[in-house]
């Protein structure tokens, strides 16, 4: 199922050449959240958020399928929140994109008020909207693309120029495969991705700009500041540690997981209606409506619990099913205890990875929709011994503003006041390696490696006269390959016949500053000064959906005949 | 010579490897520092990706050395000599035409940061100097420039990152210094020193049995103390060109740093 080489990449490269001749187009920044999204652009002197025709800077991320023409949250005029829950509206696509139907996140999405069906066979789930009582199948990429088209039209109308280049923010925990799905959605919408930025690193760039501006005003320049960024939205939770000085931000460590407001919401729904799973098993019109009503009521309750200590939940789900209950804040925190603990451990892990002590952190930045939840704010500040969070960054606009600044910097725009005199040095989010030594993942580039990076390891054959070897590239932190995401594979052929352990098979991984991964493989025989076969260079990822199947099929077909082991240096 | 010499753009960083507590034989982690051949021209890789696969048949492995030698003294772009202020610093970037120079492997990591080749680098501003370089060399800042210069940026930037990471911690700095003097530390070598073996067994037990953070913190401070002592031993040994002693110190330091990583993970 390796994909032909037509992807977004080649598409993008050609347009890169076109634009260099004319005035550089400023790339816009887009933050597509699980629940909300926004667009911003560098207007020549500062970042400006673009508004839709209803004067909103922050729009809901959803697409409603009606008759032939789907419409999204940018343009459509929602009469009532409940329209969103008729079964025709698809949302939470950021939680579903690039996932197979065995993924627990997909399973947890089955109570969304549209169809998410899983058959647990390792392919993409069946996602569909109910249009005129017929299930209209779609994919997260398609929904995202429809939405991006609307965002693009909105931006073009306002900026009065065609939009092509974008910087998009993405969750830290996205695999490279998921990133290709986002790129695919952008390509479908006619957009060229200049950069996919992990969300907290966009915030880090904005923070770097603030520090730079502050040092211009004061005499206190050059001193390095370490900041921790905690970003929790509806779908994902991300942490970054950044060290910034003189406009240069070095990302020291990143950590992320699939925990967000959606999980808090689901926990509350099953808390108030424990048998909701069985009640809503059938996705009929009635059930969808009930699920939708419950969702809206709980969402509202959680929002209100941020400012009130207890709220009244009063909702009629139909069919004589009513929920009438007072929920207090402690109850909410108790129900979601595990999630909050996970957030804490994510922060601690990130600090450890960055080799930074709590005392070294000058600023703690809390952003994202969940930053309004008192418990979230408290759990972060508690780790930092009650330190007041950083002010001066809008928690809902930080990521998109950072993306817009990156868009300007990456488009080569200069600012006479030095406001774009910035640089973010990124780090990798997940380890990348190849399968070797049996079923093990041998990481070549560990996570939190500064980019650009290039590392190589020498492997060798496992059989006498083995002339071919399979290079299976994985991403993830698991020790065994099956715990990780397969990114792609290729075969090297023409290894000179020799006893096992003799040929030196050099595998090299290269990640450039734009996070493009290339894997190079070559063979050298001991004593020779030249590669025995031409070096093969492959851009990753190469796999499409169903990667689990590929790995299994390869194993079935070839067994261990094309295996590799790491070459031990001789004493 | 291995293929890595051809492929290599930068030296590798010691990889994180976990201490295998269950194995009776204790091995030190591989740290694949490859020998850098000064003035050997590394092929640059062109990042035009019109497809996934590209054979490198047309790539010349070592034919451009002449061009390389020239460029180490003059700017490849504007032919200017480094300015007075630049000639004191390594010539990675031409101030006259704001142009990134090709990697010159004869410039070592210490020289990149304008440091004397010394183990005790008291310089607290290593990170600052590193960031100053990145502001000139990072590929993100040369989008609009030629493919050639973008390739130079990728290589220079990556090399400065490696230089910074190598010099930042005493252990990797020590290994690198030995390497500059032609001494390879074989970290895969099985430990044969009975004293160290006994010590390792003891620490291993301690860490395994430690249940509370107090004990773990105590072990951690012990390790830090040992690290400091052996670090001093290394510095003295290196100073007096006693490379055997220096290697032994590195071996010990590698081990202690591994224990510290394990303890931190457990904390």
TrEMBL record, chain A:
Keywords: ATP-binding, Nucleotide-binding. The keyword ATP-binding applies. Residues 1-20 are annotated as: Disordered. GO terms for molecular function: ATP binding; ATP-dependent protein folding chaperone. Belongs to the heat shock protein 70 family. This is Heat shock 70 kDa protein 8.
TrEMBL record, chain B:
InterPro entries: DnaJ_domain (IPR001623), HscB (IPR004640), HscB_C_sf (IPR036386), HscB_oligo_C (IPR009073), J_dom_sf (IPR036869). It is found in: Cytoplasm; Mitochondrion. It comes from Lupinus angustifolius (Narrow-leaved blue lupine). One of its GO terms (biological process) is protein complex oligomerization. GO terms for molecular function: ATPase activator activity; protein-folding chaperone binding. Residues 108-180 form the J domain. SUPFAM superfamilies: Chaperone J-domain, HSC20 (HSCB), C-terminal oligomerisation domain. Signal peptide: none annotated. PROSITE patterns: DNAJ_2. This is J domain-containing protein. Keywords: Chaperone, Cytoplasm, Mitochondrion. Belongs to the HscB family. GO terms for cellular component: mitochondrion. Pfam families: HSCB_C.
């Amino acid at each position: 199922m390796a994909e032909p080489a037509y992807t977004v990449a080649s598409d993008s490269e050609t347009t890169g050449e076109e634009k260099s001749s004319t005035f550089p187009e400023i790339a816009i920044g887009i933050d597509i959240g699980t629940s909300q999204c926004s667009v911003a652009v560098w207007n020549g002197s500062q970042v400006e958020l673009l508004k839709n025709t209803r004067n909103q800077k922050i729009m809901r991320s959803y697409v409603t399928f009606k008759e032939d023409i789907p419409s999204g949250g940018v343009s459509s005029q929602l009469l009532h929140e409940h329209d969103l829950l008729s079964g025709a509206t698809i949302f939470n696509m950021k939680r579903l994109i690039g996932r197979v139907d065995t993924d627990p996140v997909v399973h947890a999405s089955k109570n969304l008020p549209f169809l998410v069906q899983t058959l647990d066979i390792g392919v993409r789930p069946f996602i569909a909207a109910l249009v005129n009582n017929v299930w209209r199948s779609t994919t997260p990429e398609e929904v995202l693309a429809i939405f991006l088209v609307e965002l693009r039209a909105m931006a073009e109308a306002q900026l009065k120029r065609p939009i092509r280049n974008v910087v998009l923010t993405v969750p830290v925990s996205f695999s490279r495969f998921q990133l290709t799905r986002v790129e695919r959605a952008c390509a479908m919408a006619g957009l060229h991705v200049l950069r996919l930025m992990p969300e907290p690193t966009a915030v880090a760039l904005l923070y770097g700009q603030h520090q730079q501006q502050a040092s211009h005003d004061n005499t206190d320049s050059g001193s390095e500041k370490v900041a921790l960024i905690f970003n929790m939205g509806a779908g994902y939770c991300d942490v970054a540690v950044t060290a910034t000085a003189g406009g240069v931000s070095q990302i020291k460590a990143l950590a992320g997981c699939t925990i967000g407001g959606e999980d808090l919401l689901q926990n509350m729904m099953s808390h108030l209606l424990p048998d909701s799973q069985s009640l809503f098993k059938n996705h009929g019109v009635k059930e969808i409506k009930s699920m939708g009503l419950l969702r809206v009521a709980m969402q509202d309750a959680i929002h209100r619990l941020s400012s009130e200590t207890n709220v009244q939940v009063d909702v009629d789900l139909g069919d004589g099913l009513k929920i009438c209950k007072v929920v207090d804040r402690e109850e909410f925190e108790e129900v979601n205890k595990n999630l909050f603990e996970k957030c804490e451990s994510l922060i601690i892990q990130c600090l450890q990875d960055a080799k930074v002590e709590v005392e070294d952190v000058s600023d703690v930045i809390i952003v994202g929709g969940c930053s309004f939840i008192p418990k979230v704010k408290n759990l972060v500040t508690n780790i930092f011994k009650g330190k007041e969070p950083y002010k001066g960054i809008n928690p809902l606009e930080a990521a998109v503003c950072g993306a817009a600044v990156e868009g300007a910097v990456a488009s080569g725009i200069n600012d006479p006041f030095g406001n774009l005199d910035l640089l973010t040095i990124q780090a990798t989010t997940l380890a990348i390696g190849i399968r070797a030594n049996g079923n093990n993942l041998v990481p070549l580039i560990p996570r939190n490696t500064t980019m650009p990076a290039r590392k190589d390891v020498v492997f060798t054959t496992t059989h006498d006269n083995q002339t071919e070897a399979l290079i299976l590239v994985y991403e993830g932190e698991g020790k065994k390959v099956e715990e990780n995401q397969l990114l792609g594979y290729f075969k090297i052929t023409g290894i000179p016949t020799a006893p096992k352990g003799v040929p030196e098979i050099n595998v090299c991984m290269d990640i450039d500053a734009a996070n493009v991964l290339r894997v190079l493989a070559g063979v050298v025989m001991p004593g020779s000064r030249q590669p025995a076969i031409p070096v093969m260079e492959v851009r990753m990822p190469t796999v499409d959906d169903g990667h689990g199947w590929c790995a299994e099929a390869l194993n079935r077909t070839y067994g261990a005949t094309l295996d590799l082991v790491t070459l031990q240096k001789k004493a | 010579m291995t293929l890595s010499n051809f492929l290599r753009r930068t030296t590798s960083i010691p990889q994180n490897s976990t201490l295998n507590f269950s194995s009776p034989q204790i091995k030190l982690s591989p740290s694949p520092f490859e020998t850098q051949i000064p003035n050997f021209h590394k092929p640059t890789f062109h990042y035009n990706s019109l497809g996934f696969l590209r054979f490198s048949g047309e790539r010349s492995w070592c034919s451009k050395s002449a061009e390389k030698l020239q460029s180490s003294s003059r700017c490849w772009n504007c032919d200017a000599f480094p300015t007075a202020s630049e000639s004191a610093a390594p010539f990675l970037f031409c101030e006259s035409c704001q142009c990134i120079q090709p990697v010159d492997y004869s410039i070592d990591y210490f020289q990149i940061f304008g440091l004397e080749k010394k183990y005790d680098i008291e310089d607290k501003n290593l990170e600052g100097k590193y960031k100053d370089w990145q502001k000139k060399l990072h590929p993100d800042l040369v989008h609009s420039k030629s493919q050639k210069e973008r390739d130079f940026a990728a290589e220079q930037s990556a090399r400065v990152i490696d230089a910074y990471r190598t010099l930042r911690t005493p252990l990797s700095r020590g290994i690198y210094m030995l390497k500059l003097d032609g001494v390879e530390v074989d970290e895969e070598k099985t430990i044969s020193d009975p004293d160290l073996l006994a010590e390792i067994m003891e620490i291993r037990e301690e860490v395994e049995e430690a249940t509370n953070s107090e004990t773990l913190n105590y072990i951690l401070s012990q390790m830090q103390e040992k690290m400091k002592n052996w670090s001093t031993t290394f510095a003295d040994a290196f100073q007096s060109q006693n490379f055997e002693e220096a290697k032994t110190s590195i071996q010990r330091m590698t081990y202690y740093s591994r224990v510290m990583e394990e303890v931190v993970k457990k904390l």
